[in-house]
Specification:
The termini are far apart. This protein is mainly α. Helix content is 95%, strand content 0%. Its main location: membrane. One of its GO terms (cellular component) is endomembrane system. It comes from Flavobacterium defluvii. Keywords: ATP synthesis, Cell membrane, CF(0), Coiled coil, Hydrogen ion transport, Ion transport, Membrane, Transmembrane, Transmembrane helix, Transport.
Length: 166
């Protein structure tokens, strides 16, 4: 092993350097250019993919913002519609109550008028019957009292006496 380390041969060194330079030249001409082109192409593909991913992320953020805005608008519209529906319901209930109260009051007024009318009719009928009965009783009493001549003259004198007093 010492022989190999201690012996330096210029010829061997020359041929090794020449082969090494030739190998580098051949590699540069035939291998490095395609390797570098492939690396550059891959690097450009990665840059494009990163840019595309960034654009997609930005677009997703925009879509999420749009979706959130649309969702908020839809919620606001839903809330407005629910509020309007509640107001309409309350108005309809209030109108129905008012109408029912008006109808009830009208029916009460009609019932009162009907009762008053029936009462007046019953009173008129009662008066009519009372007057008929009174006349009948008076007629019977007068017939009985005026059945003889003496009671007739007493009645006439009594009536004449009452007229003078008034």
């Amino acid at each position: 092993m010492e022989k190999l380390i201690n012996q330096f041969e210029f010829g061997l060194f020359f041929w090794q350097v020449l082969i090494f330079v030739g190998l580098i030249f051949l590699l540069k001409k035939f291998a490095w250019k395609p390797i570098l082109d492939a690396v550059n192409t891959r690097e450009q593909g990665i840059k494009d993919a990163l840019l595309s991913a960034e654009n997609a992320r930005q677009e997703m953020e925009n879509l999420q913002a749009d979706n959130q805005r649309i969702l908020n608008e839809a919620r606001a519209e839903r809330d407005a519609m629910l509020k309007e529906a509640r107001e309409m319901k309350e108005k309809m209930i209030a109108d129905s109550k008012n109408e029912a109260q008006a109808q009830g009051q009208k029916m009460i007024e009609q019932a009162k008028a009907a009762i008053e009318s029936e009462k007046n009719a019953a009173m008129a009928e009662l008066k009519s019957q009372v007057s008929t009965l009174s006349l009948s009783i008076a007629e019977k009493l007068l017939k009985e009292e005026l059945s003889n001549k003496e009671s007739q003259t007493k009645l006439v004198e009594k009536m004449l006496g009452d007229v003078k007093l008034n």
